[in-house]
Every structure is written in structure tokens, then in C-alpha cells.
Amino acid sequence: MPVTSAGLLLFRERPGLEVFVAHMGGPFWARKQAGAWSIPKGEYTDGEAPLAAAQREFAEEIGVRPPDADYLDLGDFRYSSGKLVRVFAGRAPGFDVAEVRSNTFELEWPPRSGRRQEFPEVDEARWMPVAEARELLVAGQRPALDALVTALGAVSG
């Protein structure tokens, strides 16, 4: 059974379409940009509703509750590893975060040093145009941007 995650893709129009995405924390991602950004998301179990999991994970990774919105289920997106990510999109024109306060994870760093350090899961989050997000998001999440654009076209068209 594949690992399943759920995430929130917040969006706004200003005048172009922007999405709110997060830069992954930790030493591996510290100096990377392309492929080092993600929709705020995390794993959930069979007993948890995917939207509730996405909202919980957003709060854990960003440090604030996600905005109240009518979340649209964009569907499941499969990574090349087989992992599935369920993405929910929400219109959030007034949402902003002054400071990201992410939960942390522990890692031996530097490798084979025997020293354990804590790092934030997310070290930055911000709004960016969809075209920029397409370049920076991990490859498995890029199709969610296409699904968002398609869904918004169907809603407004």
C-alpha cells in the first residue's frame, strides 16, 4: 500500500494566479531552490479524513491554522516513488504569515558524526506566481498546479 499524504494549496489572484508554498527545511535542502519547495502536506492514516489531515499538517508546518475556505479536492497525485498526495485547493486572498514556525525533525548531522540536531520541517513559506512555483515545486506536485488552473477555468468559465 502506498504512503499517503494530504496537503493544502492556497491560491489568490493578484492580478495573476499565485500559490502559497513552503521551502523544505534541513541541511539537504538548505542551498537548493528548484525541486526544494512543497505544498504544505503530511502523511495520514486510513482512519483520518484527508482534508482534516491536510489542515492539521498545514498548521504543523506553517505554525498557524489554515484559513477558512471552501476547499476544492484537486485529487491524488502520484510521485515516481509511488507515494500519493491528495491536494485540496482553497482561495485565500487575505492570508499571510509574518513568520513560519514549523515543527521539527531530528537528524544526525553532519553525517556519521554521532551528533543529532533538530531542524524545522519548513524554513520558509510564501506566495509566488504559478509559473515560479512550477519551477520550484518537487516534480510530483507540479501536476496539482495544472489541476488548479483547470479547476479555476471551469469555475470561472
TrEMBL record:
Transmembrane segments: none annotated. CDD domains: NUDIX_Hydrolase. Keywords: Hydrolase. The keyword Acyltransferase does not apply. GO terms for molecular function: bis(5'-nucleosyl)-tetraphosphatase (asymmetrical) activity. It comes from the Bacteria. GO terms for biological process: AMP biosynthetic process; ATP biosynthetic process. Residues 1-150 form the Nudix hydrolase domain. InterPro entries: NUDIX_hydrolase-like_dom_sf, NUDIX_hydrolase_CS, NUDIX_hydrolase_dom, Nudix_hydrolase_domain. This is DNA mismatch repair protein MutT.
